[in-house]
Each structure stands twice: as structure tokens, then as C-alpha cells.
Amino acid sequence: MAGGWSRDGAEHEQMDATVNDALERARRALPTGKSAEFCDECGKPIPEARRIAVPGVQHCISCQSELEQEAKATELFNRRGSKDSQLR
After folding, report:
1. What are the tens digits of pLDDT across the range 42-73?
2. Helices (H), the chain
3. What's residue 26's pLDDT?
4. Handedness of CA 6, 9, 11, 14 (dihedral sign)
5. Is the pTM of this model over 0.70?
6. Percentage helix, strand, coil for the chain under 3-state DSSP, each rounded to 5
7. 38 by DSSP, 3-state: which?
8. Which residues does residue 38 pair with via DSSP β-bridges, in sequence order?
């Protein structure tokens, strides 16, 4: 049951939209194309097993982990769920 100015089911629609946005961001972040032989960040060789397992990979495991941690730190704010975004 929705209250205030929202209609019934609005909470579920907002949750679904948030999940769909996260999935789309994750899909866009997946590497594509030819895998690099050397890491773009540190220059170390990328093992062949990793290049086969992750087509289009551009970073070694260490650098990829660091990049993901940095990205995760910037995604802490859910703009869709903030009160300000609902006032537009």
C-alpha cells in the first residue's frame, strides 16, 4: 500500500528500476573485443587463462580489483531512491 502522493505499487516499481539500472551498468562494464596481453594499468602480463575466460579483458586481477573497489566507492548513493529525485 502506497501512501502520500504515490500510487499503489510505486515502491516495487522503484525497486525494479533500481535493480534494472544496476544490471545495465554491470553489462556495460563487461569487457568486449580482443583481450590485451599486458595490463593497461601496471603493464604486467595477463595470464592466458584469464584472457580466455574473460574475452576483452584489459587489466590483471590485481588492477581490476582495485578499479572495482574505486567504482564501488562512488556508487554508494542511490539517486533514484533519494527524496530529491522524487520531487522533480
Report:
1. 999 999 999 999 899 999 999 999 998 987 77
2. 10-29, 48-53, 61-74, 83-86
3. 82
4. negative
5. no
6. 55, 0, 45
7. strand
8. 45
At residue 44, φ and ψ (nearest 5 deg) are: -75, 150
Report d(CA 60, CA 50) in Å as an integer. Answer: 8
Give the pLDDT score at 59: 94
Residue 30 zone, left/alpha/beta (φ > 0; ψ -120 to 50; rest): beta
Closest CA to 40 of 60, 26, 19, 56: 60
DSSP-derived 3-state class of residue 25: helix
Of residues 25 and 86, the one with the higher pLDDT is 25
Length in residues, the chain: 88
For the purposes of burial, counting CB atoms within 10 Å of the CB of 59, is it exposed (0-12), middle (13-18) or buried (19 or more)? buried
Contacts of 2 (CB under 8 A, 6+ apart): 8, 9, 10, 11
DSSP 3-state of 20: helix
